[in-house]
């Protein structure tokens, strides 16, 4: 993108952060901006693959425990999400029913529910309401792993997913504003670890998808 077109594509307040971190070198700042876009794309693809595997794993687990219509049953009177502390999940499902209407199916609902919904299945009250069995979804979790550990890890992934979805940069240290890929590297490493907990081989699952390490290296060389 030529510099003369830059102002039409990127707002001055947004680009100023890149300029400042690059010592007002426009060429370097534009390179960093592009590098951040590439990193966001690559990391979002990995998160998307992880999300699909996680939600399908939870769905299979609850199908075996509560039947193929577990989502619908969970919000019926007396269902495990029809109680105090489960309100957000309850409303997410009801909103899904409304959005899907005559096109509803269990599979469609699983795809419709957000990553936040699946993350909060590991929050204390919802985890307990579901029977406290969802750790079984992670067969290769380290010995001693608790519900709290999984919830905190999933929350971290959901956090960076939302940052990318809202076009927030991943190439800066949050506190100093300096160029840094430490945050992205940590979240990427966590994704790889959680895939292993799920019983997956990351290299095989992410073949042709994962370009995060290369994207991080490109930013580190700017």
Brief write-up:
This protein is mostly helical and 222 residues long. It contains twelve helices and no strands.
Describe this protein's structure.
By secondary structure, the protein is an all-alpha fold. Helix content is 65%, strand content 0%. The chain contains twelve helices and no strands. It starts with a helix and ends with a helix. The mean pLDDT is 94.
SSE diagram, text form:
Layout: H1 3-9, H2 12-21, H3 26-66, H4 70-74, H5 87-100, H6 106-112, H7 115-120, H8 124-129, H9 147-165, H10 182-197, H11 202-205, H12 212-220
Helix pairs in contact: 2-3, 3-10, 3-12, 9-10
What is the distance, rounded to the nearest whole angstrom, between the alpha carbons of the first and last residues? 17 Å
Oligomer: single chain
Structural Rg: 20 Å
Helix-strand makeup class: mainly alpha
Query: Given the C-alpha coordinates, what overall shape results?
Result: elongated
Number of helices: 12
Mean pLDDT value: 94
User: What portion of the residues fall into strands of 2 or more residues?
Assistant: under 5%
What's the story with the biggest beta sheet? none
């Amino acid at each position: 993108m030529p510099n003369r077109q830059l102002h039409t594509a990127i707002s001055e307040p947004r680009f100023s952060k890149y300029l400042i971190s690059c010592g007002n070198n426009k060429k370097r700042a534009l390179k960093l901006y592009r590098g951040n876009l590439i990193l966001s794309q690559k990391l979002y693809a990995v998160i998307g693959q992880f999300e699909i595997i996680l939600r399908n794993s939870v769905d299979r687990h609850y199908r075996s425990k509560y039947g193929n219509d577990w989502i619908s049953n969970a919000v019926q009177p007396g269902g495990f999400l029809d109680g105090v502390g489960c309100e957000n999940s309850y409303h997410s499902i009801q909103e899904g029913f409304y959005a899907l209407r005559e096109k509803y199916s269990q599979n469609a609902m699983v795809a419709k529910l957000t990553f936040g919904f699946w993350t909060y299945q590991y929050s204390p009250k919802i985890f307990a309401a579901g029977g406290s069995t969802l750790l079984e979804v992670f067969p290769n979790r380290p010995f001693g792993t608790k519900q709290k550990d999984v919830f905190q890890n999933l929350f971290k992934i959901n956090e960076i997913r939302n940052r990318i979805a809202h076009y927030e940069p991943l190439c800066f240290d949050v506190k100093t504003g300096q160029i840094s890929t430490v945050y992205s590297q940590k979240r990427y490493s966590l994704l790889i670890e959680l895939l292993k907990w799920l019983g997956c081989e990351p290299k095989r699952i992410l073949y042709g998808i994962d370009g995060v390490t290369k994207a991080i290296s490109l930013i580190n060389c700017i």
